[in-house]
Design a protein that fits this description.
alpha+beta, Glutaredoxin, 13 helices, binds zinc ion
């Protein structure tokens, strides 16, 4: 078979001639899109140092390795634009914070920021979106293509509903966690910051226990955050001579200010993850010992997302949760564009 030159895995519908046209049209369209949109970030683009360029390359490799482990194929690299802090919010008029991607135009925009960890995880998140299975659909009516699939997300015929979109987000968050554990934790550039963050999270865990916050709730929050504002000061206070109760009081105030100032990046989508978690739990408890860990089940989801092969996942869900459940889960986890 001829090698596919588009950054998409497949084009559904249309004749061979249409598919050939798509290749040419998409390239033109995306070049034009990039050119036309340059003014939006003119003056906001960050000049990268050599080290920063290298770091981005490393992040790209780490992401691709993980995506390919779950069955993704190699794709053309997206265009990556790194901006001054706060730019994504400005450009998207508040719709997105710190990172955004366009799966059809294959463009990523990410804010630079003080925290290396925040930057790396934001960029990895957007890159994972670009590395998952993606297909287009050819429409006879418009004589044009549009997105059909992005990971396990399926774009509905109404042009608005995106089925499984929440689960896709949760799986991307899962992939970012893999990336942190497998790559960033071993990278000297990140070790320091990860240690500091772990230290604060450990304290937050103690504080939440003290305040009787259920473990699940704690986990939801702590798994979603990669960095804390003004962390050195915070650590100094936590290491200080005050008693534990005083430190808990301090943490309480710190958290309140952090949320009030919207100073925390909770990129990893707590609500979406909760949905995925409860789904995985349901499958695990009704799988009659076929699966012994949550991880095995999450892997089936991940493979569906990155390889695009939905059948094994659909079988698993229908077998555990009954006929028709795959479809209804798609609807329950859909979003309206
Ligand atoms: Zn996302």
């Amino acid at each position: 078979m001829e090698k596919f030159e588009l950054p998409f895995n497949n084009i559904v519908g249309g004749k061979q001639k249409n598919k050939d046209d798509v290749k040419e049209n998409w390239k033109k369209e995306s070049d034009e899109f990039l050119r036309k949109n340059e003014f939006k970030y003119a003056g906001l683009e960050k000049n990268l140092t050599k080290d920063e360029v290298l770091e981005i390359e490393k992040i790209k490799h780490g992401v691709n390795d993980i995506a390919q482990y779950y069955g993704a194929t190699k794709k053309l690299s997206p265009k990556i634009i790194i901006l001054e802090p706060g730019s994504v919010y400005k450009i998207t008029q508040g719709k997105f914070k710190s990172g955004v991607c366009s799966p059809y135009m294959r463009r990523i925009m990410v804010d630079s920021c003080e925290s290396k960890l925040d930057f790396a995880t934001t960029l990895a998140h957007e890159m994972f979106h670009m590395s998952e299975y993606t297909s287009l659909i050819f429409s006879q009516e418009t004589d044009d293509t549009e997105l059909r699939r992005a990971g396990i997300s399926i774009f509905g015929k109404d042009g608005e509903t995106v089925y499984f979109a929440n689960i896709e987000e949760a799986l991307i968050a899962e992939a970012v966690q893999d990336f942190v554990n497998q790559y960033l934790r071993k990278n000297p550039q990140f070790v320091d910051e990860i240690k500091k963050t772990d230290f604060v999270k450990n304290w937050l865990g103690k504080f939440y226990d003290y305040a009787d916050v259920p473990k699940e709730k704690q986990k939801e929050f702590l798994d979603s955050v990669y960095s804390f504002p003004d962390i050195d000061n915070l650590i100094e206070r936590l290491n200080g001579n005050d008693n534990e109760e005083f430190k808990f009081g301090f943490l309480n105030g710190y958290l309140r200010t952090m949320f009030e100032n919207d100073d925390v990046v909770m990129r990893e989508r707590m609500d979406e993850r909760k949905k995925l978690d409860s789904l995985v739990d349901m499958i695990l408890s009704s799988s009659e010992n076929e699966y012994t860990s949550r991880k095995e089940i999450v892997d089936v989801f991940m493979r569906a997302n990155f390889s695009g092969k939905l059948l094994p996942l659909a079988r698993l869900i229908e077998k555990s949760l009954g006929k028709g459940s795959f479809r209804s889960i798609g609807a329950d986890s859909s979003v309206i564009k």
